[in-house]
Specification:
With 176 residues, this protein is an alpha/beta fold. It has one domain (31-175): PH-domain like, CATH 2.30.29. The protein contains 4 helices and 8 strands. It has helices at 31-43, 48-52, 88-101, 154-167; strands at residues 56-61, 67-72, 78-81, 106-109, 122-127, 133-138, 144-147, 173-175. Strand 6 (133-138) and strand 7 (144-147) form a beta hairpin. The protein is globular, with a radius of gyration of 25 Å.
Amino acid sequence: MFGKSKKPAPAATKKAPTAPAPQKEVKKDDKAARLAAAQRAILGGASSDDRKLIGKFVIKKAKDGSYMFNLVAANSMIVATSQMYTTLDACKNGIASVSTNAPTAKVEDQTLENCAKLPYPKFEMYVDKANEYRFRLLAKNGQNVLASQGYSMKESCINGINSVKHNAKTKEIVTE
């Protein structure tokens, strides 16, 4: 009496493959796009186009006649600062040292209890008296050639080191 009613089988539907959303073309002078690309490059998710974005060394002369340089990323942020040099030539030698040593330097993490001492060149990552993470780049001769700002998080300090490794490859040197 109460028989089972058969429902018609649903018609097979084919979904058309969805095309990826079109990518917005970005102008090379778009500062926000350059900033995002630089951040991806620092964090390791960079495309080949992003890796082309590279910073510069900026030399400054102090009032006392000495020189120093900043390594500035493509997003215009200062990544690290040199020591003071008595001559412009010595300052340029410091830049050459960073360019040579930074890309291959290993990181000696002095925030760890049993930190293994590494050979030069190396980055030393440490915690300062204000309890901030910092790094410095020591050249093959053990000379300190570059130092960072203070970071509240260790991950940010590591990102800073990676940024130095990336941006140190630049050939652009600007004197202000």
